[in-house]
Amino acid sequence: MKDYPDVELFINGQWRPARSGKTIAVLDPATEDVIGTVAWAEKQDLDDALAAADQGFSVWRATSAFERGRIMRRAADLLRERCDDIAVWMTREQGKPLSQSKAEIRAGADVIDWFAEEARRTYGQIIPARHPDVLQMTVKVPVGPVAAFTPWNFPINQVVRKLSAAVATGCSIIVKAPEETPAAPAALIRCFADAGLPDGVVNLVYGIPSEISEYLIAHPVIRKISFTGSTPVGKMLAGLAGQHMKRVTMELGGHAPVIVTGDVDVDAVVATMATYKFRNAGQVCVSPTRFLIEQPVADRFIEAFAKAAAEVKVGNGLDPETVMGPLANPRRIPALEALIDDAVAAGGTLRTGGARLGNRGYFFAPTVLSDVPLSARIMNEEPFGPVAVINRFNHLDEAIAEANRLPFGLSAYAFTASDRTAARIGNEVDSGMVSINHLGLSLPEVPFGGIRDSGYGTEGGSEAVEAYLETRFITRRPLSA
């Protein structure tokens, strides 16, 4: 199983090539070698997937929540059993260290288990009527076939939340997974199929993202859209969905601030946040990016963070000593170099890193910039890479203002010994998720989603299933005798 597979489409319970026979090459970002192929779906394949999802929905919506949960728990168990082999595929196609791949897969199994239980508790209600012989009630029903679009940075995590929520609530789904990292999502979906999911409930396609999204979103079979990706693309897809009155969940870009006050243990915060910053080479939507450090401890924080970044071992994710792997694709290298050069030209200071490492593979040095003017591009554009920007503040009002300056609102972090300061940050920082004095995001049982230009809706917590359900009101009065 460890040999990297040629990935096929999964439609109506069958693994099959595209009707055209076309494929897309899959590269290992650590070596730039072609390691496999993935089937390239076109309109005929999408029509097959839509017909399957339509039929699968008619079967699955009539299946009890208890039975859906049983199959899902079996899928979670299979995912755990296959974790070691799937992790090797994920590391080869995406680049992250093997330990991070394994952690992502195990967390994915927890997500499946959580949704399997949560969807058994989607209660309706009885509403007191004005007349004694009238019954008024609401029931929760699945919204219908779902189209889900997922990115390459977390090949299991980004699929499993959408897939689990849909399946748990009785919806069918077509997953458009990333061409760069196709094997891990396919392995996840194989676990669901092997667990006994009926044909057509889950379908998997790959291909040209714009062509697939435009076709699926507009199609009358699809009733719900879930997208994770950049803000510009998300806005375009949300607009298309709106034209067709499709329900949408959008988890879009961020530019997460980190507020650190002068009363904390600087070394402890640096140790925590440096590890978190360079996880998955910074290719994380909730990655901490704009560090705002109170002036009395700013120099010490900058020095310690730069030292920690310089000590990160960068290499092939299959090497057990590697802490940070390569970027997932070559496009990120010139993009990061341009942002860093612009920051330095604007007056910022490059403390460490700032350049590609080697000439084979997409490796980039962990990078720390300090004292970067707000006019620099990196202070306004999400870098989505291993780059941290550290600036200073004198008063908390300044830090909160900077945290809220951008239109993004996905995640924010803070470290402070003051309960009053913590309360202000929690109340005043405009973000869908705020984690104070620890890293508490991304658990299955808590909300995961942003506000403003970072999207709307949540893919975690009890609210996540609501996006896949409709509330139906039923009122009944007996006929007169």
Overview of the molecule:
The protein is an alpha/beta fold. It folds into two domains: 9-252 and 454-473, Aldehyde Dehydrogenase, Chain A, domain 1 (3-Layer(aba) Sandwich); 256-443, 3-Layer(aba) Sandwich (Aldehyde Dehydrogenase, Chain A, domain 2), CATH 3.40.309. The chain contains 13 helices and 20 strands. The strands form five sheets. A seven-stranded mixed sheet has the order 14-15-16-13-12-17-18, with helices on both faces. A six-stranded mixed sheet has the order 9-8-7-10-11-19, with helices on both faces. α2 (65-81) runs antiparallel to α5 (157-169) and α9 (266-277) packs across α10. It is globular and about 80 Å long.
The assigned CATH architecture of the largest domain is 3-Layer(aba) Sandwich
Major β-sheet annotation = 7 strands, mixed
How many extended strands?
20
Radius of gyration: 23 Å
Oligomer class: single chain
- H/I helix tally: 13
CATH topology of the largest domain: Aldehyde Dehydrogenase, Chain A, domain 1
Top CATH class of the largest domain:
Alpha Beta
Going by helix content, strand content and strand pairing, the class is alpha/beta
Report strand order across the widest sheet. 14-15-16-13-12-17-18
Looking at this protein, list some descriptive labels:
single chain, 481 residues, alpha/beta, Aldehyde Dehydrogenase, Chain A, domain 1, Aldehyde Dehydrogenase, Chain A, domain 2, 2 domains, 7-stranded mixed sheet, 6-stranded mixed sheet, 13 helices, 20 strands, 37% helix
Short précis:
With 481 residues, this protein is an alpha/beta fold.
